[in-house]
Amino acid sequence: MPGFRFRRGLVAILALALIASAASAVWFISLETGKSRALAALDDELHVLARTVEGVIERFRYLPAVIARDRRILDVLASPEPATIERANAYLEAVRTDSGADELYVMKLDGLAVAASNHAEPTSFVGENYQYRPYFTDALARGEGRYYAVGATTGIPGYFLSSVIRDNSRVVGVAIVKVDMRKIEATWTDARSIVAVTDADGVVFLTGHAPWKYRPLQALSEETLFDLARTRKYGSADLAAANPIFSDAGRLPETALVDGEDARRLVLQVGIDPDGWRLLGLASLAPIRANSLLLALLTALAGLLIAGAGLYMRQRRQLTRARLHAHAELERRVVERTAELNRQVEDRRRAEAELRQAQESLIQAAKLAALGRMSAAIVHEVSQPLAAMENTLASTGLLASRGDAAAVADKVRSARDLVRRIQRTVKLLKSFARNEPVRLEPVDVDKAMAVAVELAAARATEQGAQVKLRKSSSPPSVLANTTRLEQVILNLVVNALDAVKERPEGEVELWSEHDGQRVRLFVRDNGIGIPEHLRDRIAEPEPFFTTKLTGEGLGLGLSISRAILDEFGGGMNFETREEGGCTFRIDLPVISENRLREAAE
Q1: CA-to-CA distance for 219 and 217, rounded, in angstroms?
Q2: Where are the coiled-coil regions (predicted)?
C-alpha cells in the first residue's frame, strides 16, 4: 500500500511538471507570434494613415497657384485700394466655400496680408505681417512653400501651402492656403492604437493622445528650440519645458510605457514625405499578453482535464444517479408549476371575459344615456315633421275635393319627404342604440362625423347653437367600428353643446386631417372652457367623474370613449384656447393592409 501511494504521488508530480512545461512553451510561442502579427497590423495601419495625411494635404496643393492667376488678386497687389481689396476678399471667401479649405489669403512682398477669406471675422488676417513664416520665405526663394504651424492670429493649427504670384514673370506677392488637419486628429481619438505625427525635429503636433500634444520624442537642442520660437511654429507651447516622451536619445525603443501604463506598447514609425514627418504608432501588448496567458491556462486546463479523466470515470456512476434523481425531482416540480399556471391562466381568462362584458354594458349604458340626454330634441325632430305631415294631408284632402290633381301630387311628395326624414332619424337612432359585437372595419371618418352631427342637430337647434362640419377633399379611412366611432364623436359633440349652452352664439366645429400615417379628428367649441383644476382629471378621465349637474350625466363618456379608442389603436387629448372654448382631438392610425389582415384574423 505505501509503495502504491508513492507511485501515485510520483505520477502526479510528473504529470504536473509536464503540464507546466507545456503551458510555458505555449505562452512563449503565442507571445512572440502575437507580437509579429501586431507589428504587421500596426505597419499596415500606419501606411494607410500616412497616405490619408498626404491625401488631405495634396488635395489643396493646386489651390495657391490657381488663385495666384486670378485678375482680382493681381489687381489688389498692384493697387490695394478699398474697391480692389473688397473684390479680392469676396473672391477668396467664395473659393474657401467651394473648395473646403480652412483659410486663403494673399501677402505682399513685405509679408503684409492685403486680402483674406476671413476678412469679415474677428481673427481676420488682413493687415497682419507674416514675413517670419517659412512658408513665405520658401515661396519667394523656391516658388512654393509648405509648413505646419499654429496660426499666429487665430491660434488654430493648420498646414500652410504657398505659391508666388507673378504678373508677367515679375513676382508681386505670395498666395497661401491653410488646411485644417484637426478632423484627421479627431478620428485618431477612438483608435485602438496611439497614433502621432511628428515634424522633422521630432515634435508631436498631431495625435489622438492629448498628453503628447506639442511634446518632443527626445530632448531638443538649443538651436532647434530657438528656431521654433523664432518662427512661432507652435504658438505659445513651451517646448523647452516639455518632457521628452522617450528618454533614449537618437533612436526609438521597440517597446515603451505610456503615461504610467502597466503594460508596455509596441512602437513603430513610418515616414511621410516631403516634409520629413514621421507617423508614430504604439500598439498595446496587453491583449497579446492576455491572449498568451489565456492559451497557457487553456493548455494547463486541458492537461488537468486529461489527468482527471480517470477520477471522472470512477465517479461517473455516482454523478449519473444523482442527476437522474435531480431530473425526476425537477419534472415533479415542473408538473406542479404547470398545473398552477393553468389555474392562473383560466382565472385570468374568466376575469378578462367579465371585464369585457362589463365594458360592453358600460358602453351600451353610455349610448342610451346620450340618447336620453337628447330625447327632448329627438322628440322635437320627429314631432315637427309629423305635425307638418298632418297639415299637408289636410291640405291634400281639400285639394282633392276641388279636383286639383297637380296640387295633390305636390302635397303627396311633400308628405313622403317628411316620412323619409322621420325614417332617417329613427334609423340613425336604432343603429346607434344597437348593442352590436365589436367588429373592426374600414370607416370613413367624414361619414362618421356626419352621422354624429345629424344625431345632434336637433339638440343644437333647440338650444340655438350651430354645429359645423368641414369635409376634407380626400376623406381618410381608419380601421375601427362604425357605431362605436360614431358614439365617441357624438359624445364629444354633446359635451361641446353642453359647453356652449350659455353662449348667445354657441358654435361647435368638426373637421379631420391626415398626413399619410395618422388621422386626426377635431371637435372645437367656443364654450366656457375647462377650469385649470379639472384638466388633469379630464386628461385621464375617471369613471363616474362629471362636471355636469346631478342627473345630467353618468360621468362615463370620456372614460368609455378613451377605452374605445384604445381598441382601435388610437388616443384622445384636448387643449383649451385663450379666446375661450376647448378643442378635443381624436388620433387614429391610417388603415393599412397589415391592420386589415389582423382584424380579419
Answers
A1: 7
A2: 341-368
Q: What is the pLDDT of residues 191-226, one digit of tens each?
A: 567 888 988 888 888 888 888 888 888 888 889 888
- HSE-CB at 65 with a 13 A cutoff on CA atoms is 8
Output the domain CATH number for residue 123: 3.30.450.20
Q: What is the tens place of the pLDDT at every residue in 87-103?
A: 999 999 999 999 999 99
Name the percent of the chain lying above pLDDT 90.
19
Q: Is the pLDDT of residue 15 over 90?
A: no
Q: What residue numbers bound the domain in which 160 lies?
A: 63-180
CATH for 528 = 3.30.565.10
| pLDDT of res. 555 | 38
Segment 23-81, tens digit of pLDDT: 888 888 988 888 888 888 888 888 888 888 888 888 899 999 999 999 999 999 999 99
The predicted-structure confidence for 516-530, as pLDDT tens digits, reads as follows 788 999 999 988 777
Classify residue 280: in a domain, yes or no: no
393 Cβ contact partners less than 8 Å away, ≥ 6 residues apart: 411, 415
Q: Identify the residue whose cell numbers are 495634396.
A: 58
Mention every residue, 6+ apart, whose C-beta is less than 8 A from residue 405: none
Annotate 103-170 with three-state secondary structure.
EEEEECCCCEEEEECCCCCCCCCCCCECCCCHHHHHHHHHCEEEEEEECCCCCCEEEEEEEEEEECCE
pTM: 0.47
> Of 493 and 414, which is predicted with more confidence?
493
The reply to whether 550 falls in a domain is yes
Beta carbons within 10 angstroms of residue 41's beta carbon: 15
CA angle, residues 306, 308, 312, in degrees to nearest 5: 115
Sign of CA dihedral 56, 62, 64, 67: negative
What does the pLDDT read at residue 553? 41
In the numeric block, which cell numbers belong to residue 118? 476671413
597 CB burial (10 A radius; 0-12, 13-18, 19+)? exposed
C-alpha cell at 332: 415533479
Q: What is the per-residue DSSP string for 504-564? A: TT-EEEEEEEE-SSEEEEEEEE-SS---GGGHHHHHSPPTT--SSPTTS--S-HHHHHHHH
pLDDT of residue 84: 94
| Domain boundary, last residue among 139, 162, 180 | 180
* Final residue before a domain boundary, out of 145, 161, 180: 180
Number of domains the chain is built from: 2
Cell of 517: 400615417
Residue 7 covered by a domain = no
Instruction: Give a yes or no: residue 24 inside a domain.
Output: no
Mean pLDDT over each residue of the chain, to the nearest integer = 80
State the Cα–Cα distance between residues 557 and 543, nearest whole angstrom. Answer: 8
Amino acid, single-letter form, for residue 533: H
Per-residue burial over 130-149, b = 16 or more CB atoms within 10 Å of its CB, e = otherwise: beebbbbbbbbeeebbbbbb
